[in-house]
Amino acid sequence: MKYLAPEQHWTELREHTLTEKLAIARAVENVEVFYVDADKARRHRMEAREVWKKSGSNRPFDEWCDDRGGMCRAGWYYWFCYPGCMPDSEPYGPFKSETAAYLDIYKNHTDVEP
Asked: Same domain, yes or no, for 69 and 80?
């Protein structure tokens, strides 16, 4: 059992609701969440396949592509990026929904408890 100081309120122990988690994740300033459709994913896949062939990698293409951080599958992604600037990270994803992408941001890129 966690001890609460007299000035703390019992609600500080409860878990955030889905709405609160999404609001916290959306408040992260330098994150861009975006959707890659099947056509764009196919183009990324074709470009990545050429790089994979030239690399001489012994790994299967799908495994190599996933580890490389390419957007080879349709879905929701995010990366760290200030508006008007180039991305500061590889893309994270794909996620099945925008909500799933924001929940991943909440879970892995915020210091909020619980």
From this structure: no
Helix (H, G, I), strand (E, B) or coil at 71: coil
Encode pLDDT of 48-58 as tens digits: 888 888 888 88
Whether pTM > 0.90 for this model: the answer is: no
Q: Are residues 63 and 83 in the same domain?
A: no
CB 78 within 8 A of CB 91: yes
Read off the pLDDT of residues 7-17 as tens digits, 9 standing for 90 and up: 544 455 568 88
Number of domains in the chain: 2
26 and 55 in a single domain? The answer is no
In a domain, 3, yes or no: no
For residue 21, give the H/E element and its range.
helix 18-26
Burial class (CB in 10 A: 0-12, 13-18, 19+), 77: buried
